[in-house]
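Researcher: Structure for this, please.
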Amino acid sequence: MLIIGCDFHPRFQQIAYVDKETGECGERRLNHAEEAARFYRSLAGRGVRVGLEATGNFRWFQRLQAELGQELLVGDASAIHASNPRKQRTDKRDARHILKLLVEDRFAVV
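Model: Predicted structure, token format:
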């Protein structure tokens, strides 16, 4: 299973991921919706779980995840931020923190 923590923005996504089977992990910035769609389509047929904070502009992303059969978890933004001991935020840190919560099964779903 590939687990992806996603800091979602209207123009880009910052992701952190780990493959539970191989141990491979990494980070990536997907710069626009088309690049994100290509990336997630390339994972078709694999077990994928994506976690992101609740935000207003991600309906297209929900439809894409449903079309691909990938699990999408939408988290409570205030609970996610409250669980982060480090208050200085960056997109990369937010994506890593969401990934950590997913892996530790502490992700607060809305």
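Researcher: Any notable elements?
Model: The beta strands are 2-8, 13-19, 25-30, 48-53, 71-75. The chain has a mean pLDDT of 92.
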